[in-house]
User: What shape does this take?
Amino acid sequence: MYAIWRNLTLIEDVLLGTADEVVDYLRSNFSSPVQQIRSTLSERAEPIKKNSLEEINNSLSCRIFHKKESPFDSICDYIGFVIYSYQGKSEFTLNGQLYKRGDIIIEDVNNIPNSCLILKSGLRLQNVYKNLYELLFKWHFNTSLDKRFVGLGITYEKSKWKFDAIIIRSESTQSPFSLDEHRLLEMYILTWTQNMNGKTSVLENAQKMLNEQLNYVKDLLETQRPDMERIWVPEEINLVIKAFEHEIKDDITQLFQVGDILNRRNCIKFIEE
Assistant: This one.
């Protein structure tokens, strides 16, 4: 989901510029013959299968844990990890709290005790992140991080998310989570940043978040249209806008569809904090 969201926000930034900048961007990214033929001739894909991503083998808990009860602040830097297992178990108790695979521990870096000592150099090398994860783990669980814990590191720095920063305490360099689980975790974290983790399912929130941003971008395009038509032929503008919408909608459709789900029967359980 993040790739689509990032693309839409980057386009938004362009559309807040001049008409010349918008025209250059559209020409560079959506004016190829193949793109325009696809958007003109192909019919829209079948409706999004809202429940396809939910048919994932084994349950995956999606809960956000952060000690400072404050909403997400886009100007701050965050670090966290997604729990995969502890002592070989996907469900365990630490410091009196039950945790499950898929739980997300996340915090503003500046709130973590002693983090300023690690960040003092200003260099964000791999060892720096490992040390930060160790601090966050010790602060949250009140115990030191050891080899019995396996998780996936995440970061938010300079307005950019990285959802596979480091595989924590594992010999493998591959994420322990499946691609489908990654998609759901991204959706949950991104909708959390928009304060959307309520009673509605994460899939519905994710769709709403993407569709609202797409509609906002389309409105910005229409606002820019009069100025664009002074420097570009209206018919060509229509074609590139259609190509843009087609590509984004196709990306959203593919995001919510999972190929091989015939043998999957267990629905994912979303547990609210």
Notes: Helices lie at 2-15, 19-30, 33-41, 115-119, 126-141, 179-193, 202-228, 234-255. The beta strands are 64-65, 78-86, 91-94, 97-100, 104-108, 149-157, 160-162, 167-168. The first helix runs from residue 2 to 15.
